[in-house]
Amino acid sequence: MSIKILIACGLIAGATACAAKAPVSGSRDESRATATRNRDLISQEELSADPSMRAESVLDVVRALRPHFLNDHGTSSLAAGGMSDPEAGKVHVSIDNGRIVGLAELRSMHANEVLEIRYLNSGQAMQKFGSTARQGPVILVTTMVK
Fold first, then answer.
1. Which of these, 51, 40, 47, 44, lies nearest to 61 by C-alpha position?
2. How do residues 113-144 score in pLDDT, each as one tens digit?
3. pLDDT band for position 84 (cuts 50, 70, 90)
């Protein structure tokens, strides 16, 4: 067999194998392909992919797309004066790298205002915000207008 025939056979076999592995809409393969997205980021592209999401509150979008962002970590901590801090380990929010606020802020924001939503685990949050992160994760929301 000539080399040209071997190369042609290899290309055809490779194309057939690739086509066989292409995800079918609604299949498990499609869900595996979408599982490769960044689990700690909701991008503007992802929000734009489903236009109905743009009208939702940011909290509803997070619940739908990345529910793990909302998991508290239950860390207990002593605040100044030896008192227990009931907010320690809870998920908090920072909008445009501003001060740390409660999750309720996400109810009043619409997804159409957002460039990205990023999750910081407790360690990353402490690095970025220090003790104001209260030993819990932080959801960073970057809006279109700063």
1. 47
2. 999 999 999 889 989 998 877 778 999 999 99
3. low
Beta bridge partners of 92: 138
Q: Buried (b) or exposed (e) across 21-48, using 16+ Cβ within 10 A? A: eeeeeeeeeeeeeeeeeeebebeeebbe
Name the DSSP letter for residue 14. Answer: H
Find out if CATH 2.40.10 is the number for domain 38-143.
no
Q: Which two tokens stand for residue 67?
A: 């529910």
**Which amino acid is residue 73, in one-letter code?**
H
Nearest to 94 by CA among 137, 138, 144, 57: 138
Q: Which of 41, 53, 56, 91 is nearest to 70 (CA)?
A: 91
**What is the per-residue burial (b if ≥16 Cβ within 10 Å, else e) of 72-87?**
eeeeeeeeeeeeebee
CA separation for the pair 106, 80 (Å, rounded): 28
C-beta of residue 103 within 8 angstroms of C-beta of residue 92 = yes
The residues pairing with 140 across neighbouring beta strands, listed in sequence order, are 94, 118
